[in-house]
Amino acid sequence: MLHYRFPDTIVGSNNNIKTQLNIPKIILDSDFGGDDFLSFLWLLSLVKQGLAELIAVTAADLNVTASRKFSVATKILRLFGFQHIEVGQSVAVIRKAVEDTAQINEVDRVEHLSYTLPPTASFCEESPYSDEIIINKLNADPGEITLVAIGPLINLAAAETKHPGILKKAKELFVLAEAFQCLKNPIAHTNSNSWFNPETSQIVFDSRDDIMLL
Question: What is the Cα Rg of the chain in Å?
Answer without folding.
Answer: 18
